[in-house]
Amino acid sequence: MNAPDRNLHVKAPGVSELARIVRVNEEIKAIVSTAFRINLMALNAIFLAKRAGNAALGFGVLSNELRRFAQELTRHMATLRDMTSGSVGSVTGVVQQQRTSAILAEAIRLSGDGVPGVREARRRGATRLAEQQACLRSLDLRLRSAVEETQQLVELGGVLARSAKIEAAYGGTFSPALMQVSTDFAEVIAQIKRSLEVLGKERLVKD
Q1: Average per-residue pLDDT in the chain?
Q2: Which among 20, 23, 167, 206 is least buried, having the fewest CB atoms inside 10 angstroms?
Q3: What is the pTM of this model?
Q4: Is 106 contained in some domain?
Q5: Average pLDDT over residues 89-93
Q6: 206 within some domain
Q7: 110 lies in which domain range?
Q8: pLDDT of residue 7
Q9: Do residues 97 and 128 touch, judged by C-beta distance below 8 A?
Q10: Structurally, how many domains does the chain consist of?
């Protein structure tokens, strides 16, 4: 009796999928927080440009564009967050179904056809598992597409930050302050790019 009990204690597969979706959600949260910082930085840059007057007109225009970029980035990340909001539950369902299928497979191996309904239960479970995995693959494809679109947006943000740094050189006495703001922009955008690279490599389900 003890031997079958030990054999039925199978390792639950699929835990890696749950770990991946948790990492995806954490990266999304980090980017949303960073986008909020960019919005505040852009407001500060606009204020500085107004104080600098005509010497910082170009910087002021770019600051407004960076603020629009931050707002657009926030919308992109809200979309990503909505896409993955229910994914933890979906992945948990897949993990549980995989666990059940493994237990049923072991029961069949140990008892053959001696337990009525086991094979049918396993077939039904396999169908549910396939459906759940198909949903996750669909979500995975949509998530990857959304990440690629966001990466293109962030590339634009990087161009704006570099242009702002060039314009900061013409800010007169405000040039050092404007240069610092533009440098901060570039660093934050680089941070977002790194987070998006992590997202781009993640998969909700194994290929």
Answers
A1: 78
A2: 206
A3: 0.71
A4: yes
A5: 71
A6: no
A7: 3-201
A8: 39
A9: yes
A10: 1
